[in-house]
What does this fold into?
Amino acid sequence: MFGNGGGLIGPPQEDRKFRLSTADLVVYNDNAWALYYDMEILAAMAKNLQDSPRGWQALVAANDIINEFSVGDQKSIKSALNISAKFFAAQGGQGNHQVYAIGNCHIDTAWLWPYDETKRKIARSWSTQLDYMERYPEYRFAASQAQQFEWLRTLYPSLFKRIQEKAKTGQFIPIGGTWIEMDCNIPSGESLARQFLLGQRFYKQHFGQTCDVFWLPDTFGYSSQLPQIVRLAGAKYFFTQKLSWNNINKFPHTTFQWAGLDGSSVLTHMAPANTYTAQVTVSDLINSVKQHKDVAYSNESLYLYGNGDGGGGPLEAMIERLDRIKDVDGLPRIKHAHPNEFYEHVEKTARDLVTWKGELYFELHRGTYTSQARTKQYNRQAELLLRDVEMLSVVAQSVAHGFAYPAAELDRVWKLVCLNQFHDVIPGSSIEMVYRDSDKIYEDVVNSGKALMESAMTSLFSHVAAESVSKATGVLFVNTTAWPRSDVVAVPGLQGPGVQQIRERDNAALVVAATVPGCGMSVADVTNGSADIEAVPVTAFKDSKGNV
It folds into this structure.
């Protein structure tokens, strides 16, 4: 179901069923699997290093193993392992390129599946990784998006506690600093700031520290506001790899300083393997050097491996392969590491890194400013509404006796707005059922925001309010923008000598709000029926259905 329709991203077949027909119970042969992993590496080195002595040595070792191996003979397996061990014992030089490997599973919060399925994906994926941490003490795994951790904390509290324990040992690494991995083109600057505010606050509260790395491997471009916001949020490093997918102009750098509008900069790295779901292969390691555009200035790179988008993460086979090639002659050195270790080492050792100023524009996914227009309209409505609610609530708390600032509810609805700003939701790239959910979420936000605004306005102005609209002698206009505004306002049910025009479809009075000062208010008197009252400049039109 979900995304398993026609093609990779076709609409879902919601009634699709699968049947498990057979299952086998087998005994795991440690030596046989070890030899299998050894042969994978040897074959790959022979294939990818054909013009080097090391490639020929790998081919010879693989051939010797084939000659030694006999089906069903356990002793032959042990003898073959001695051959591969001798090959892997030859280590590389200290000047070799250093790769810092970090497991991840990049779970899209929604895409070809709805939010509810993501809640199950994180539990399945992360519990598997916790098991690997018990079996491989050196293993490191990173997960981003505070929203996903919050879901886990609520729905799977015992699993969340296990993750907290592994976070203390440094094996499970909460990373990113934001509420979700958001789109960076459509949301406002305030929303981008909220992503970090909510994310860093969650990590501090539940893991005891904020994040140094802004982790966003898969969004569709990066606003020039971000370096300043990242710095103000307490982070100083940035990771992505998305621009490697550009289909016109290839981005010219791998490790560099990214400077924003105000001059703030963050140390930035784009994994030269050009993926965040690498499989720990020999070719990936070779490409980490070949495709590194700044290797002359920084001889190291990050390497993100594990099955992703839909979750899963690294497999046992990937960890086993990594263990075999961590320091073997002919390949770059690779080790399990915290991303902070990589960035801190680059800070100390890199030289002459360039600075890229302004937007990081992504040249591939198109239509992200136009697809699912209703979602984008809802987002902007919610952003503006919550801004007004917060402003009026702050004023009400300051001057209105007994008013309590609605911090908890505002926190809840801002989290919902940030959730729908996920990089596959607000751009319009998810399946239909995702937008059924997001519409309901936006309706919740708008209804709550309007109720909060009504509460704040009532606290501020109830002492001058009429008992009903029909008894009103004037209209109070509140301008929450920072500049003077003039507009025509429809007031249902308003009557009085000063009301000169009524809208036909709902009998709302049309009243001019003339030059209401910025962050201020004014009152229009509707009891004055004199001829010098300003007329409302309204022209009526009818559409094809006769609606005015």
In short: The two ends are 45 Å apart (CA to CA). The longest strand covers residues 508-516. The mean pLDDT is 93. The longest helix spans residues 432-461.
